[in-house]
Each structure stands twice: as C-alpha cells, then as structure tokens.
Amino acid sequence: MQSFVDAYNAVVGSINSQYTLDSNGNEGVLAGDSMLETLQSDLLNMVSTSVSGVGSYVNLQSMGIEMQNDGTLTVDSSTLSSALSSNYSDVQKFFQSTAPQGWGQIANTEMTQLTDPTLGPVALDINGLNQSNDDLTNQINDFQASMAQVQQQLTTEYDNLDALLIQYPLQIQEAADQLASLPDATSTSSTSSGS
User: Fold this and answer.
1) Are residues 85 and 143 in the same domain?
2) Global pTM value
3) Full residue range of the structural domain in which residue 147 is found
C-alpha cells in the first residue's frame, strides 16, 4: 500500500509542480495544457472512487488512505493495520473483486485508459505536440528558404550597385578628360572678340 501511495504521490507531485509559481511568478510549461488538467482530474477521481457490494470497505479512506489538500495521499498506519488484521478478506475484496468490480479493477481500467499508447490523453497530447513541432519546423524551414531567396536578391542588387559605383569614378575621369580636351573657352572667346 505504501509503495502505491509513494508512486501516486510522485505523479501528483510532478503535476502539482507545474502549477507552482517559480521565483519570477511563472507557472510550469505545462500549466495551461488541457491534458495535464485531465490527468490530474482523472487521478483525483480514481483515488476518491467508492465501490459497493464488496464488503465493509467502500473507499480508500475507509481503510486509512486519506487524500491531502494538494491531492497527495497519506497512510494512517494504525487504521490500515486494523483493517488488515481484523477484516483482511474485505480489504482483499475491495481491491480484487471482479463481480461486482472492486476498486483495483476500476483503478486498473482507469490507468489503462490514461496510459494507452494510442488513445490515452498523454499519448494524444504528445502526438499533438509532435505535430505542432513538425508544423513549426516546416514553417521555420519555409521562412529560412524565403529569407535565403531575399538575401540572394539583395546580394545581387548590391553587387550590381557596387559594380555601378566602381564605374562612376572612371566615367567621371573620362568626362573630365573630354572636358580638358575641349578648346579653352577663354581663348576661344578672346579670339572671337579680337576679330
């Protein structure tokens, strides 16, 4: 019983940690995930489930396994020891009865559904997150390809502009040389006025 309680508390403690605020006032990364809420709710419902027709014990609490405010369980050793020593067969029926279903059968069905590798909420959430990751990766790859194309276009435009800028000094020098080779404007006007 203590091993079950310890394992259950480890799971619930891990879930609770997602809702605990860190030093910056932020919750865990899964705090808003609906799967986590489903998992938490299903686990809490499972350990509070009552059964009937299997003997004198109807729920875990009646045998000394009590839920705390944070959803974890504690074992009242004296109550559990008393149940096991005075009415072992009813404790056994509570957990193992198949007709009517005992708590163990109900919990097993619930845990099988929660951990189903295809249809369980955890598996579905993981698959959804993987799909989102794939979609984001594809979007990033498409964006990077688009940016590479834009970069190539800008590089080509820069190269063309750079080539033009390199030609300008040569063209300016050619224009200056041509202007220098023209007849001197001052001597031309002097000659015209002397005639």
Assistant:
1) no
2) 0.66
3) 119-183
